[in-house]
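Handout, section B. The chain below has 286 residues.
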Amino acid sequence: MTADPAGRTVLITGANSGLGRASAEALAVRGCAVILAARSEERTRPVLDDLRRRYPSATLEFLPLDLASLASIRAAAERVLASGRRLDVLMNNAGVAGTAGLTKDGFEITIGTNYIGPYYLTSLLLPRLEEAPNGRVVNVASVAHERITAFDWTWLDRRTTGAPSGFAMYAASKLMNILHARELARRLAGTHITTYAVHPGAVASDIWRSLPWLVRHVLKLFMISNEKGARTQVWCATAPELATSSGQYYYKRREARGTALSRDEALAAELYDRTGRAIAGALGAS
């Protein structure tokens, strides 16, 4: 990717608020065409209108996408594929925390939304990313992955009843985001696609919307703005110096080490395969 990202097309999930919105604005300012993928057109329309008003030359569009539904993900991907337009960057930004329940396909809601959905979307959009001179996949992860000391394969199981989804499920999903970027980089070695996982910092974003108001209020007193938090993921999406780097984890625009578990190549490979089988099983049952 050249130093000037103008003219590139970037798809950002969860782009109508928080880190996603901040990333969309930062990339629109630089001349990128931005696809704002989100569940609600009603909530996204004011964001589009505001960005178009402030940046009249920006190319912006809405893409309906619910990461908790494999059918919605496929429909969104098919729409992008049918457009015939090259895709330069997929930013897997959307996520949930502190919520409970199941996805439409029976996966635990946090694992399903934060990891399984982005995994499936990425796999479907690879043909468009392969057409780019330097296609990039940016997974928004978190330092929260450090809370996980042992991997539990039941996280990928489909269920019939939901269970409370605490911080542990959020941490597990973020570990999976890092492992996904690592294994995807291995599988795409020799192509023009590179991958990145990012810890944005402790950000006062809408991902905490499911927590009680008072808890959110206190937490946000110690958090950084969405604009500051988005800097590393925007950098990974555009920096020419990262064009030959792939599969690494970043914080504050620097490569970070992460935990030994997040660097486990055998675990990353097995997780990738098992996730593919879990998705295939869910699709076969639908």
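Note. The first strand starts at residue 9 and ends at 13. Compare this with the example in section A.
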